[in-house]
Structure formats: C-alpha cells, structure tokens
Amino acid sequence: MRRIRAAVTGAVTLSLVLTATACGGGGEDGGGQATKTLTYWASNQGSSLEVDKKVLQPELDEFERRTGIKVKLEVVPWSDLLNRILTATTSGQGPDVLNIGNTWSASLQATGALLPWDAKNFEAIGGKDRFVDSALGSTGAPGKDPAAVPLYSMAYALYYNKQMFKDAGIAKPPTTWDEVIDAGKKLTKDGKSGIGVEGSNLSNNIHQVFVLGKQHGADFFTADGKPDFTSDGAVAAVKQYVDLMATHKIVAPGNAEYAQNQSLSDFAKDKTGMVLWQTPSQTFASQGMSEDEWGVVPAPVPSGKPGTGTATNSMVAGINMAVFKNTKNLDGALKFVKFMTSDEEQTALNKTYGSVPPVKTAQKDPAFSGPSLAVIRDTLASSAAALPQVPEESQFETVVGTAVKELFADAAAGRPVTTESVKAKLDKAQQQMPKK
Amino acid sequence: MTQTAVTPAREPAVRKATPGGARTARRSGRRRLALPYLLLLPALVLELLVHLVPMLMGVAMSFKELTQFYIRDWASAPWSGLDNFSVSLDFDAAVGQSLLKSFLTTCQFTVLSVGLCWLLGTAAAILLQENFRGRGVLRTLFLVPYALPVYAAVITWAFMFQRDNGLINHVLHDQLGIGDSPAFWLIGDNSFWALLAVSVWKGWPFAFLTVMAGLQNIPRDMYEAASLDGAGVWKQIRHITLPSLRPVNQVLVLVLFLWTFNDFNTPFVLFGEAAPEAADLISLHIYQSSFQTWNFGTGSAMSVLLLLFLLVVTGVYLLLTTRGRKTSDV
Amino acid sequence: MSEAAHGRPSRPRSPMAPPRSFLWTRRIVLTLLTGFVLLPVYVMISSSLKPLEDVSGKFEWIPSALTLRPYADIWETIPLADYFVNSIVVAGAATVFSVVVAIFAAYAVSRYSFRGKRVFTVTVLSTQMFPGILFLLPLFLIYVNIGNATGIALFGSREGLILTYLTFSLPFSIWMLTGYFDSIPRELDEAAKVDGCGPIRALFRVIVPAARPGIVAVAVYAFMTAWGEVLFASVMTNDTTRTLAVGLQGYSTQNDVYWNQVMAASLVVSVPVVVGFLLLQRYLVAGLTAGAVK
Q1: Could you give the ipTM of this predicted complex?
Q2: How many helices (H) and strands (E) does chain A have?
Q3: Which of A18, A272, B115, B244 has the greatest count of CB atoms below 10 A from its CB?
C-alpha cells in the first residue's frame, strides 16, 4: 500500500511539474561546461556503427589531449541522419559539429541552421585554398558562403570482374556507354548479367541519372533554380539508364528492388560483371572478393575521354563537415574542424574509409595513388560535377529518385518504358516539387 | 459484507453518483466534488501535453508555409491561409492526385485487412471454443504474431518477400512452378498483396483474442437449450454464437479500422523510404510529404484532412451501430 | 463478482458429438492458420543460424550449414545490450505509470458522475485517431521548450520517451479499465467505505485487487506498445537512449545487410515480450472479457 501511494505521489508530482513548465518560454540555458566539450554527429562510413566508433575515438582522444576539449561522439545511421538534423534545426538543439552528405549542403544551408563559412571562419581552419575545387563545389549554393567544408571525397567509377571479362572474351574494359552495352551483352548469359543497379535506392538513382543528364547536356534545374525535369535531355538520360534493363537487358530484373547494396554482393559473388559505384573496395573485401579479382576504370562517357560538360562521368560524392550555428562553443568547434581537416587526420581517416582526401596536401600521400584511388582522384579533379546546389535538392532526390524506381519496377515487370512514359513520370515528379 | 452495503436502498443512478455514504458526503462536500477531477488530473495533463496541444499546434502548422526556409523558427513562418489544403485537395494536379490515390489505396487496404482479420480471428476463436487435444497449444501459438514486436516481424517478412532470394518466391516459383519468372513483392503492383499479408498476419490475433473474450460472455445455458432442441454445432454457431458476438464486433471492427488506417510501422519497415505506388498507405504518404520533402505545412494539412475523415467515419459508424443495436435489443 | 472476471471460460458442452463436417473444417482451418503463423517464425529461427553467404543467397528450407556466430556477433555489430536496457527501462516505466494513471482515471469515470465526464472520455478515445505524423514535430518542439525553460531534458532522454509512450497506451487502458471497474459490483467499495475507508483506500483495497486481470491486460498492452514503437523513437533518441526498435536498423549499414544477425537479433529481442505475453495471456482474455467487450 505504501509503495503504491509513493508511486501515485510520484506520478502526480511528475504531471504537476510538467503542467507548470509546459507554458514556459524558450530561454537559452546550456550546460555549464560548454567550452570544454563538443558534441559530434558522425555519419556511418565504416562497415558498422561500432567500427566507426573504434576508428574515430582514438582521433578524438588525440584532439582532447591537444586542446583539452572533450568530444562526445555519436555515430548516426544514415536512415536517421537527415531526420535528426531536421529536428535539431527545428528545435535549435543539436550537436556542435556534424557530418552531412555533401549533396544536402544547399538544402541545409537554406534552413539557416549551419554556420556559414566566411573568410574569417575559413581562416581559422587554415584557408579555403587548402581544399580541392570540385569538393568545394558541393558545399552550398553558388555565390553564398559555404555551409560546410569537405571531409571525405568520393566519385563513381566502373568496377569489373576480371575473371568474368576473361571468360566472356572481353579484351579491354569499356570506356563508353556503347562499349558497356556490348560488354554487358557478352556477359549476360547462364543466369549472370552484365551490370548491376540499385533500382530502389533513391540517392543512387539520382546520382546516375544526374551524370547521364550532364552527358545529354541537361541539368535538372534551370539556371535560376527552377526544377526542369522534363527537358529532352533529362528524359533521354533517365530512359537511357532504365533501358539498361528495359531494352538492353544487361541488368537482371531483380535489381529493380535492390536498395541495400545487393548489387555489390552480386558482383562479389560473380553474378554480375560490372557495377558503377563509389569506393566499394571495403565491401568487396568483406564479401570475400580480393583486390586482384576486380579492376577499375573511369565511369563511361558517350564517346572520347572523360572531361567536363557532356564528358562528365561522375557526381562529386562525399561527406562534408558542418558547424551548427547554435553552438555555444564556436571556438572549440572551429578547432575541431581544423583538426579533422588537417593533413594528418585527412590521410589517416580517408585511408581507413577508402575515400580520397579533399585536402590538396593530404592527397599527395602515396596511399591515394594506388590504381583504384587514382581513378577516383583523377575523376574528381577533371570530370566530376556537383549535384545541383539548390535548396530543393533533397526534394529532388526524393521525387525523381522515386520516379526512376517506379520506371525500373515497370521495366522489371516487362512493361514498356517509352519516352512518353518516362516523361509522364518526370512530369508528375516535377509537379510535386514545392512551388516557388 | 454485501448485506451492510446494500442496506440504504438506492436507485442505481444515485448509487453511481456518490460512492461515499451520506455521512461522509456531507462532511467532505467540497472534496467530493474535487475528487474525480483530481483522479483524472494526471491522465488529463498527459493527454494535453502529448496529444492535444501538439495536435492543435499541428493544426496551426497546416495553415503555415512551413518549408525548410522556416523550420528553424516555425512561429515566424508566414501564414498561408488555406493554400496547403487547396494544394492537397486539387485532384487535377500531381500532389492532390497522388494523395487521393493513396487515400483510395488505404481504404481498399483497410477494408480487406480488417475483413480478413475479423474473419480469421472469429473462425479461429469459434473453432477453438470447444475443448480438444492441442487446444491450449494452438491458442498460445496464434497469439505469437501479436506478441512479436512489429519491427522484428516485418523485417522478417521483408526478408521473405525478396524477389531473388526470398522464401515466398522460392515456394511459389521454384517449388510450385507458378509464373514464368519470379514475381516482385516489394515493388510494383504485388506490393499491395504483400503488405496485406503482413498486416493480416499481424492483426488477426487481436481479433482472435477479442472474439475469444467475447465468447466467454455467452451464457452456457443458451447452448444447452439449443442442443436440447436438437440444434447441431453449425446451427448453434449461426443462431447463438454469431448474433451474441455483435456488440463485441462493433468495438472490434472500429478499433481494427482505426489501427489499420493509421498504420505507419508496417509499411515503413517493409518498404523503407519510398513505398511503391500500389502500397502507398496514407500515413507513409504524409510522412513522405512532410519529412522527406521538408514541407511540414502541407504534411500537416494532409494529416488534418485525414483526422477529419476518421472523425466523420467513426461518428457515423457509432451512430449507425448504436442505433441499430438499440432497436434490435428492444 | 461476475464469473467472467475469474477467467473461467463458459464452454458449450453439447451432448451430441460434433458432426464430421465440423471436425474437418476445424482440422483444415487450424492447420492452415498454424502454417501461416509459424512461417515467419521458422524463417527467423532458421536464418539466424545460417552463415552470411547463405542468407544472402537463395532461400533454403533446411540450412546447409549451421552456425551460432550470429548470436555472438549481434552484440558486437551494434551495442545491442545498451539498447536492450533502454527498451526495458522505457517500456517498463511507461507501463507502470500508464497503469497507475489509467487506474485513477478509470476509477473516476466508473464511480463518479461529474461535469465534463463525457467530454473527457470522448476526447481521450478520439486521440486514438490522431495520425502520429501530425503531432510528431509539435511534440518534439514542446519537449525542447520544456527543456529550455526548466532544464528537464525530455528530448533525447529516456524520460521523454517514457512520457510519450505512456500516453500512447493511456486511452485504450482507461477505456478498458473503466469497463472492468463497471463490472465490479459497487456494493464492494461501498462496504469498504462503511468500514471507514476513504475513496482512495477503497480503490486500492477493493477495486484494484478485484480488477487484477484487467490491470494485467492493460499492462501487457502498454508494454507491447512501448516495446514496438518505431517512428517517435527514431526522432527522439540518441545513441545513449536508442531503443531496440531503432537500434536494429544498425545491422543494415552503408555496405551490407547482415541478414543472419538481423534475424538473430529480432529473435533475441522478441523472446522477452513473447514469453511474457504468453504467460500472461490468460489474464488478457479475462481482462478483455470483462473490460472491453462488455
């Protein structure tokens, strides 16, 4: 009885406290140790959240040793990261420093939640010119101070299975789309297929059709930032991508439902001969495929060599690091970004994650000149384009990514994919964009 | 004990009104008035805090242009009048059209799911009414889907529905030889049936549990009288069991309807960020329209419309069923 | 007290043996249902014992290789043990508070008539209709504001989640307990009052013991609601307060989906609820009998 009464009193008190406080205003009141600690949200780069913690913690300890600032690390899964950032933005309660997908930069910039990197802030981390230009191109809307700084860089390349190529009698890895289709047709037999796609992965769909769009001279946004999904070039780009399955049949129909990198495990199991991917070497290794079993060449172009304009063959992929504007420890946050973008950390971390440092001086490390990373480094330097740096980028990924997913579903079910059906889907996608 | 309590003979209504005896009632008149409110206070405060106030804020948001440009300080977002509603209800444009389609899909899905859950639950409960060997085991077994956490169960179903490696196609295509090529279950038109299967699997044990409870309120002598009259099992089910379950069904169907119509977890875990068109349930659709496209104003407007719809349906349902019940009872 | 509240089923005992058609229908229907129910359970168990190559390949009814590795690995890939503790604390506390609050409210509704009673019951029940999406963001804002104003961290903490979940199960619990309390003869608590008990003591001396099946049923419901919730948990937790519902997503990372570990972990997190539920199901039926379905 007494215990029940205590519980009851507890419950009533709790609810009274809550009522009393529910109407309170939003006073700013942080923890007392604000200048001694930082909260950092890292994205999931390694093979699991725990692996990321093990990779990052020693670096954070080193930072604490040097500066006396303790960094509280949270590795946020990709499935939650954007929602967590959104809620942090809405409430003003977030981390001090965070990783974002670099394609989100302009969208998040528009919310005003991230610290703009003006000349003074860049100065505090050693200057803007330490970073590679292409990486800086994906840090926010042009003409505005960047919302983030590049941390890890990646690019797409074509990975191929050496043994399967040999068995199919393909002498040289393809460099143009026609050659990809030729090779794909030779590879597609006995339950194996030419190339893998991730038909239900919205971001991956976007990355691929964006590059194809560039090759057709189309952008998905007009110069003044209006969605332009139904131009001939854009329609042709989307159709060309889906046609790998629909017309050329070099993609297995099952790929239409892939969203969790099943295409990589198919590749590692010798079920598909090629994949277009960003830095998959770690995944191949974890699936039991050794480094000498696969080869890598720059992603295909319509003709000739990769370059700019219609010879673009990759988007600028990667992770940026941002400072939350509401941070109570700006100085510490800047110090931390400076630490993470230092040559030493850049070399170490990018080596571990199989990515390329966006910092020029760190790129000189021999670790990044191996055959697989050299392709990525060169692609980034000469033939990669940043996704549209517009506030609606995130909506663009959702609606156009979904349109491509639905077209793959049609193709997989054997329904015809025509210029009209592609255009209709893209038109519907465009209408779902916010009206501006 | 009961005797002393009953001594002051009272009307049932009065008895309900004040539990205290006349003596205590007079002494603590004010306390008596306040007591029910005090008892309700914790529940009331919690409901206000977690349900009602947020809901009112949600309604307010539906009149605002709450896009990514304003989410940092939603109070300062410009009022947009009925814009969010007119966008959602403009069935000629893409946004309204897809909302309407999602709504119709949800209606169809809910009717089928609730119907099947009820059917399976009732059938199982009636078939398990009489004792036989293995009855207890089956009764326990049938409750397992209800007891499993949603995400654990739905992840397993997603695993089974994979096209190339899943169990469903292994059975249908490889073992039974149905269809020229394996079907897709997680994308395309079949996704509707996949979702329905998972929803029924998850939901029918609740119907089973409720009907089982309802069966226990049927007086035994009704069956005894019927069997003395020579009525067989089937006749007893038709003339005694099913009619007696009517009040239980009235509640059961309503609860199942509301849970199914608002279900978010099942499609979200099964399909991930973008549900296929054929299985685009309204709650996931709204989630996409607000969280993934960062347009909380329109998302809220859609939620408000959904809420209004559910209120109307529930109101009409209660009106019809209770009236029907009264006349049939009399 | 009514017979039903004791959980004693009143089964028809017909003197005639059921006809053959009935027996066959029963056999067929129950067999099919058993298959339907057990299919995912079998997949879960068998896949959790396969090596990763096998679960990412074609499905096999009989595993060609068995391993217990996944059951060891699940604790390494993600901090499953921490998530477990979080889920237990959150679901447990939400259940206790929800039941206590519901008992008070149901007592008021069942035993008193007062102004606003109908408004209260209708409002509370209608919250069952609210789409979660509508109040996710506002609720989050309220929690943050409370935190800013008072220093009570509701957002991102276990307390915030407890508060949310206990409210989720409240409407159903109040409604069910009201029904249950109504079925307890008023003479009982009045007798207690004649013996000198106040209304609160009467509640705990008489009503609560008599309503035990109903209370257990409500508690089971509240616990399961909290244990399985995904949406609010994904936004309102961080890595120290993450619950199992969100944490399990950690097995599908950027590179790979560890299906065998997903299945093993699903099984591990299901066992406590399923066992608890099945042990208490007797009360659940009894509770529903007297409470909800009357």
Answers
A1: 0.86
A2: 18, 11
A3: A272
- pLDDT for the residue numbered C199: 82
Alpha-carbon gap, residue A94 to C237, rounded angstroms: 12
Residue ranges of the alpha helices (H) in chain C?
Answer: 20-48, 52-55, 69-77, 80-111, 117-126, 132-150, 158-183, 186-194, 199-202, 208-210, 212-228, 231-236, 244-247, 259-290
pTM of this structure: 0.86
Q: Is residue B329 packed enough to be buried (19+ CB in 10 Å), middle (13-18) or exposed (0-12)? A: exposed
**HSE toward the beta carbon, residue A392, CA cutoff 13 A:** 21
Instruction: Answer yes or no: same fold for A37-154+317-385 and A156-315+388-431.
Output: yes
Block residue for tokens 């017309």: A247
Contact between A379 and A299 (Cβ < 8 Å): yes
Average pLDDT of span B246-255? 88
Cβ-contact B200, B117 below 8 angstroms: yes
Two tokens at A251? 């993609």
* Neighbouring residues of B255: CB distance < 8 A, sequence distance ≥ 6: B206, C128
β-pair partners for C156: C237
Q: How far away is chain B from the Cα of A269, in angstroms, using its nearest Cα?
A: 14
Domains of chain B, earliest start first: 85-329 (1.10.3720.10)
Do the chains contact at A15 and B98, CB–CB below 8 Å? no
For chain B, list the contacting chains (3+ Cβ pairs, <8 Å).
A, C
Distance of alpha carbon B72 from alpha carbon B77, whole angstroms: 9
Closest CA of chain C from B192, distance in Å:
18
Quick check: C91 and B149 in contact, CB under 8 A?
no
- Note whether B51 contacts C248, CB cutoff 8 Å: no
The C-alpha atoms of residue C262 and residue C243 are separated, in whole angstroms, by 15
What are the pLDDT digits (tens) for B38-96? 899 999 999 888 888 999 988 998 998 888 788 887 778 888 888 889 888 888 888 88
Top-tier CATH class for C4-15+70-290: mainly alpha
Q: Which CATH class is domain A37-154+317-385?
A: alpha beta
Task: Name the β-bridge partners of A114.
Answer: A324
Pairing of strands A37-43, A97-101: parallel
Average pLDDT of A313-322? 94
**Average pLDDT, rounded, for chain B:** 83
* CATH code for the structural domain at A156-315+388-431: 3.40.190.10
